[in-house]
Design brief:
The structure holds two protein chains of two kinds. By secondary structure, chain A is of the alpha/beta class. Chain A has helices at about 15-20, 40-45, 55-60, 65-70, 310-320, 325-335, 345-360; strands at about 5, 30-35, 35, 50-55, 85-90, 95, 100-105, 110-120, 125-135, 140-150, 155-165, 165-180, 185-190, 195-205, 210-220, 225-235, 240-250, 255-265, 270-280, 285-295, 300-305. Chain A contains seven helices and 21 strands. In chain A, helix 3 crosses helix 4 and helix 5 crosses helix 6. Classes of the chains: A alpha/beta, B alpha/beta.
Chain lengths: ~375, ~240
């Protein structure tokens, strides 16, 4: 039997900055603000159902069995070095119907924030994780590692909205393991780019018929440098991966999107789609789709394109009564619209509003 | 009936080439005015110039819309005054039809009709698709008519809404053009072969354009009959002599 868990406890925090990400923190979910844990009540409520949602430090004390069993596997890291992070553990056949919000803020200048997250979904469970990262100081370093285990027939939605400042440097590595029939959906968008960003996601499809869908929106502005790398390893028969990205190049930004699918098992499918829209002569966009097969029976495809808005497209929209600026914003907004229909309905509005603001800011 | 649009002695240059010379036409409210002519005679250029697209430079003449000369106004101002254009071959745009329709409707206070017209023009299934990506000929024409209709224009400029579509689609498109005129819009319809005219009511004047000039005019009914019976070459010969 599947148990559905709803987080009804509302946490009200006067964290205006968090609203800049559009996260409805006062309605449901919780917040981590650096050292301050503001989610004890929710954590307690969830504990009754066997769900663990706590800080990684607390987890190392109280749930070291879970951390040892599922975490710290793929990385050679010293657990004493974490400044922050969470453990989300959803037991067998439990569906966490409300999104779990986690928000990291980089709040002191020159601060180096090291985050380790562990997400574990046991067999037949489901969760929606929404992560917002923002900086309220102009400089700092955010580095994070996330390990994710998705058990048999389990499903995880992962939505990330980032809002950085011009001098922030961030590096993120995520590794996801999927068991039989497990599903992983990933959505990333940055509202304001950091000075430099390295983001790597590695997806290991270890179970038969497991699937991933990764959707990434990379907005390059000012002189930001961004490198986003996604690699999917189709290791079990019937597994499939779809990696989709959109890059927007404004000002003198440089955006690199690399996507790789490696087929190591029969009956697998993989598709990569990378599209770039260049809005400035000084911006540099680069995309590299890579397909690698070690088996006979797989179907791997990719399509990639980089272009500008054509005069015909502009003229057409202008004839519909839009000014040139409005026409550009319509094309940009439409370009960024991807994969929203796959997001749980509760979060669609968040994403739509985020994209509206993104386009509003670029005009 | 009221004269909605008067084009007077209009000469137009595109990329340094003169395309239109001393063109004069009149479009009245609630009437379908028909512009016919062989390929590359300048029919589309006239529509684009009335809409104000930037490639089309008016070197002389006037475009009077409701009595006001709009020659120097940008297209979005003309659109806000009630002029709308349906393209013959619109470009593919990587934005969903539903999104564009919503934005167009917001601009022209037409939000309450976007669903109604999507149903009546049988376009509901296309709303989630990128504009004109993989659309059939009929779907392109119906979509153009849809985006035009939700603006509830005073003047509808229709560039060959009947080309490349099957007979059932032509009837359907004609039905919606009739409705535009019934609701009081003036329609300037460009058609190459004129087949659609047999399904249109409220026909007004007809013009034949050749080589950037109006060479013949009569009622739209008579013009189309003449074109169907004699073909353009004979009309050209009669008009230009020789």
């Amino acid at each position: 039997m599947v148990i559905e868990v709803s987080v009804t406890e509302a946490l009200k925090k006067s964290l205006k900055e968090v609203y800049r990400l559009g996260l409805e923190v006062d309605k449901q979910g919780s917040i981590i603000l650096d050292e301050t844990m503001a989610f004890h009540r929710i954590s307690k409520a969830l504990e009754e159902y066997g769900i663990v949602y706590t800080s990684i430090r607390d987890a190392l004390d109280r749930y070291s069995d879970i951390v040892e069993r599922y975490g710290l596997k793929l990385f050679n890291i010293d657990k004493r070095s974490f400044d922050n992070g969470i453990l989300l553990y959803v037991p067998k056949n439990t569906r966490l119907v409300d999104p779990v919000y986690t928000c990291y803020t980089l709040a002191s200048k020159g601060f180096v924030q090291r985050v380790y997250n562990l997400l574990v979904l046991e067999e037949g469970s489901e969760a929606v994780s929404v992560t917002g990262c923002l900086s309220i100081v102009p400089e700092g370093v955010h580095s994070s590692i996330t390990e994710t285990y998705i058990g048999r027939n389990a499903r995880l939605y992962m939505i990330m909205v980032h809002n950085w400042m011009p001098e922030v440097v961030m590096g993120t590595v995520k590794r996801v393991r999927l068991m039989e029939n497990a599903q992983y959906y990933d959505y990333y968008v940055n509202l304001v780019p950091p000075k430099s960003m390295g983001f790597t996601i590695e997806l290991y499809l270890e179970g038969e018929n497991s699937s991933v869908s990764s959707n990434t929106i990379l907005v390059g502005r000012r002189d930001s440098r961004m490198v986003y790398t996604t690699r999917a390893y189709l290791e079990a028969p019937g597994s499939s991966a779809e990696l989709v990205s959109r890059m927007l190049g404004e000002d003198s930004s440089r955006v690199v999107s690399r996507a790789t699918i490696v087929a190591k098992a029969e009956d697998t499918r993989g598709h990569i789609e990378c599209q770039g829209l260049q809005l400035s002569n000084k911006a540099v966009l680069s995309t590299t789709p890579t397909l690698e097969s070690y088996v006979e029976n797989t179907r791997l495809t990719h399509e990639a394109s980089i272009g500008r808005i054509s005069e015909d497209e502009l003229e057409y929209l202008i004839s519909h009564g839009f000014t040139e600026d409005e026409a550009v914003s319509i094309i940009v907004r439409g370009f960024l619209e991807l994969g929203v229909e796959k997001v749980p309905s509760k979060l669609r509005l968040l994403i739509q509003q985020t994209l509206d603001r993104l386009v509003g800011a670029s005009m | 009936m009221d004269k909605l649009l008067i084009v007077k002695d209009l000469s137009v240059v595109v990329d340094k080439h003169q395309i239109l010379s001393n063109v004069g036409i009149v479009v009245r409210k609630g009437e379908i005015t028909v512009l016919m002519g062989p390929n590359a005679s300048g029919k589309s250029t006239l529509l684009y110039t009335i809409m104000g697209l930037r490639k089309y430079h008016v070197v002389s003449g006037e475009i009077l819309f409701n009595g006001e000369n709009i020659v120097n106004q940008p297209p979005w101002i003309r659109a806000s005054k009630g002029i709308a254009l349906a393209f013959q071959n619109p470009p593919k745009i990587p934005v969903k039809l539903g999104y564009i329709a919503r934005r167009v409707a917001e601009k022209h206070h037409g939000l309450e009709v976007i669903d109604k017209y999507a149903v009546s023009l049988k376009l509901k299934h296309l709303l989630n698709r990128n504009l004109f990506y993989g659309f059939s000929g009929g779907e392109i024409k119906r979509t153009e008519l849809y985006l035009l209709t939700i603006k509830r224009p005073l003047l509808a400029l229709l560039d060959e809404p009947d080309s490349g579509v099957d007979i059932d689609s032509i009837r359907e498109i004609a039905y919606h053009i009739n409705k535009l005129a019934d609701n009081g819009s003036g329609v300037l319809l460009v058609t190459h072969q004129g087949y659609i005219l047999r399904y249109l009511d409220n026909l007004g004047m007809g013009y034949v354009m050749y080589n950037g000039r109006i060479i013949y005019s009569d009622t739209a009914f008579n013009v189309s009959k003449k074109v169907l019976v004699y073909g353009y070459s004979r009309i050209v010969k009669e008009a230009l002599g020789g």
